[in-house]
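Technical annex, item 7. During the second reporting period the consortium partners agreed on a shared format for inverse folding records so that results from different sites could be compared directly. Each record opens with the tokenized structure and is followed by the designed sequence. A conforming record, contributed by the partner at site C, is shown below for reference.
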């Protein structure tokens, strides 16, 4: 396809996308039991989602898409879609690996002609797709709400092609470092995934420590997509022998849970914190199960950063609506993030009008500055800023579940 003189695409061109290719949970009913309305004659708004649907990290992709799809189902059923157009997800599995993510993204743009990209998962996958967005710049294709807090899509030249809803890893690690420092911990260690995600978190931790004249005592790594069953005792020993008194992990639920398991089974009970990407609910589920088998409570002294409120805190309107339409066993932090993402893009589509172009959708996203999606914090999107939220919530474990620790709000950059 020629890149020269490419006209802005409207939703009308999406009518040729095969309905059989559209992945949807909305085949029959939503969690509230209501029937899903029949498709209208208007062409669907098709969004392209490439994320992890198989392998040891697949809960991340499943939960995120379930949250988004549940909200889209609600809008399709209750309102008949947006301006008479249903919202549909075209889902492709990238296994949390960069090469399939690049292939899927290219297909979305060239063959499937999706309206925008959405709900991508992970730094190593998203980062590799960013050059494609720049290459297809004349098509005005953007990636909205990726599940990563890394820097590359937040900085030029790629920041104009991505709308980041969640707080950054720098903001999460800053909150965790300050939390530990306030409690007297000075000898922090890092467990990091051996890729761009792990490096991004490691840099965030050390930058936050530098404010206090400190740096991490030791960093250890593990390979991406490492399963829970693998032995993490070598990493535990390295950090323990270095004199680490608290750990910040930049990982995914399987290996992070394995590290906690092997720490506790060795008698090392230091506080261990994780970033929101870990999928705290999936990690804790693995630890509860392992606790029963091993006869030892592995869920103690854990901290987790979050970029959404607790899915149990119904004081937030967003959470209350999410829980009203989500089965109790499906309510998770990641699922709530997916719901939030869908709420935001749906509002932008509503503002973009009945026959929006891609550039019109971009302008609508940028118009959301000051709009609160129901979490008590307004979005900060604008034509010059594609960073939506900066808020971080901290949680800790108690009786085998996550409870709020200290609400953290964005501080002025002058205080960073």
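Designed sequence (site C submission):
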């Amino acid at each position: 396809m020629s890149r020269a003189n490419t006209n802005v695409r409207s939703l009308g061109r999406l009518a040729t996308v095969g309905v059989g290719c559209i992945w949807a949970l909305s085949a029959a009913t939503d969690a509230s039991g209501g029937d899903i309305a029949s498709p209208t004659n208007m062409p669907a708004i098709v969004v392209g989602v490439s994320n992890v649907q198989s392998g040891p990290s697949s809960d991340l992709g499943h939960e995120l898409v379930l949250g988004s799809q549940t909200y889209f189902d609600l809008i399709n059923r209750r309102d008949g879609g947006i301006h008479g157009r249903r919202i549909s997800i075209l889902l492709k599995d990238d296994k949390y690996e960069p090469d399939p993510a690049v292939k899927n993204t290219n297909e979305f743009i060239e063959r499937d002609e999706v309206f925008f990209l959405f709900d991508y998962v992970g730094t190593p996958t998203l980062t590799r797709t960013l050059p494609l967005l720049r290459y297809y710049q004349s098509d005005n294709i953007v990636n909205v709400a990726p599940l990563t807090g890394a820097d590359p899509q937040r900085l030029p030249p790629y920041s104009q092609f991505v709308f980041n809803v969640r707080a950054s890893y720098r903001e999460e690690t800053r909150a965790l470092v300050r939390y530990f420092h306030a409690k007297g911990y000075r000898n922090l260690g890092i467990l990091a995934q051996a890729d761009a995600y792990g490096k991004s978190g490691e840099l965030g931790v050390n930058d936050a420590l530098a404010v206090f004249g400190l740096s991490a005592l030791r960093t250890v790594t593990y390979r991406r997509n490492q399963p829970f069953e693998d032995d993490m005792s070598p990493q535990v020993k390295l950090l323990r022998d270095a004199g680490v008194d608290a750990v910040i992990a930049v990982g995914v639920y399987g290996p992070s849970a394995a590290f906690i398991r092997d720490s506790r089974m060795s008698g090392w009970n230091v506080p261990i914190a994780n970033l929101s990407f870990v999928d705290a609910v999936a990690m804790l589920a693995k630890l509860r199960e392992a606790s029963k088998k091993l006869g030892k409570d592995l869920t103690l002294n854990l901290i987790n950063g979050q970029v959404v409120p607790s899915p149990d805190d119904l004081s937030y309107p967003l959470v209350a609506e999410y829980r009203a339409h989500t089965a109790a066993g499906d309510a998770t932090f990641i699922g709530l993030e997916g719901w939030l993402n869908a709420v935001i893009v749906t509002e932008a589509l509503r503002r973009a009008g009945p026959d929006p172009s891609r550039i019109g959708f971009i302008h609508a996203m940028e118009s959301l500055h000051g709009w609160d999606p129901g979490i008590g914090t307004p979005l900060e999107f604008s034509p010059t800023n594609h960073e939506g939220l900066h808020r971080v919530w901290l949680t800790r474990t108690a009786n085998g579940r996550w409870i709020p620790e200290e609400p953290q709000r964005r501080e002025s950059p002058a205080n960073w």
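Residues 58-79 form the longest helix (22 residues). The radius of gyration is 21 Å. All partners now use this format for quarterly exchanges.
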